[in-house]
Write a structure and sequence with these properties.
50% of the residues lie in helices and 12% in strands. By secondary structure, the protein is α/β, with parallel strands linked by helices. The longest helix has 30 residues, at 226-255. The chain is elongated, with a radius of gyration of 21 Å. Bound molecules: S-adenosyl-L-homocysteine.
């Protein structure tokens, strides 16, 4: 298996099958192979096959899933694409840096590059599941590319990164003793964290403000490894147990 197979392109809720076909073609042209479709509106479809030209194998092997969590499961790096600025800034890569980072990390674990809906892009919730965002620096007055064209640009950058890595010995990832936490483990951690903060009385689900968004961004910047994540889960459980013991003690006092 080549590193190209470790980079998956994820299309969320695509409306037009032609774009799915165009994306498949872009993926294969650039030497990638893996396409994940999150609840596509119309797939399989003749128009997708037609636009894919000779890349129907990418369509045939596409994995259709119900939600983004399933599509990024197992990934150690998730990059979300965005056609515009969002309210809460996120660690940002340009397309070149995205290609380089994806290629560098593909040697170690699966990488996902996530694309949004033709009309609305990715939701904030979906973007917050990503380690980085990438924006193709288009004309600010007309910034939104066609979906398949955006896939083309980012797959091209992965290919360019692979070519320059082949020429010059590219710097390997720093020698780390633990693999990075994967997307699904992080998602469980955030659920656990939110519940612990509720138990503590720190966080109110009815009035969440931007607390969880900012915490997700904080942890995203750190890129937790598997061991760190497991220690933090243990800390949360201990906090919850302590809160629980405190509540029962208070309850006993009021009962007696
Ligand atoms: N009106 C939508 C545009 C969606 S374009 C919005 O404002 O978000 C469909 C998808 O193509 C986007 O979700 C993104 O994945 C990709 N895309 C289009 N233009 C892009 C750009 N300039 N940079 C990065 N991704 C882009």
């Amino acid at each position: 298996m080549s590193y190209f197979d470790s980079v998956r392109i994820v299309l969320v809720n695509s409306t037009h099958p032609g774009n799915i076909g165009g994306a498949a073609r872009a993926i294969k042209n650039m030497g990638l192979s893996r396409l994940y479709l999150v609840a596509p509106r119309d797939f399989p479809a003749d128009r997708a096959v037609w636009r894919a030209a000779n890349a129907v194998d990418v369509l045939d092997n596409a994995i259709v899933v119900d939600n983004l969590d399933e599509a990024i499961a197992g990934c150690g790096l998730v990059v979300g694409t965005s056609a515009r600025e969002r309210r809460i800034p996120w660690p940002l890569l340009n397309p070149r840096e995205c290609g380089e980072r994806a290629w560098l990390e593909a040697a170690h674990h699966d990488v996902a590059i996530v694309f949004g809906r033709e009309d609305r892009g990715l939701t904030n919730e979906e973007l917050q599941k990503c380690n980085y965002h990438v924006h193709i620096p288009s004309n600010p007055e007309y910034s939104s590319l066609n979906l398949a064209a955006a896939v083309q640009v980012l797959c091209y950058e992965v290919r360019m990164a692979s070519l320059s890595a082949a020429q010059s010995e590219s710097p390997p990832l720093p020698d780390w003793d633990m693999p990075p936490a994967k997307a699904e483990a992080l998602e469980l951690y955030f659920q656990h964290l939110e519940q612990a903060l509720v138990d503590l009385g720190f966080h109110d689900r009815e009035n969440p403000r931007q607390t969880m968004t900012r915490l997700r961004r904080l942890y995203g910047r750190i890129r937790l490894d598997e061991m760190e994540l497991s220690i933090l889960r243990g800390v949360l459980t201990s906090i919850q147990n302590a809160v629980h013991r405190m509540h029962s003690a208070l309850q006993k006092k009021t009962d007696s």
